[in-house]
């Protein structure tokens, strides 16, 4: 499974925790903020906390976070350089 990582959208930093199956828990300002899941190639959905079902309404912030997740490239470990 992918390790947690940070993304930045404008002045806001988000911490992204992959949950598997194209779903992610997002933290904002050090607090759990939302859970999102990829729906189609360009649409991301916010998940309802109580039912854990997707909320089918378009949300610009959720889509921006999803697009930043797709663009994220993990940094390679340079353990060999440290030896």
From TrEMBL:
This is Uncharacterized protein. It comes from Pedobacter kyonggii.
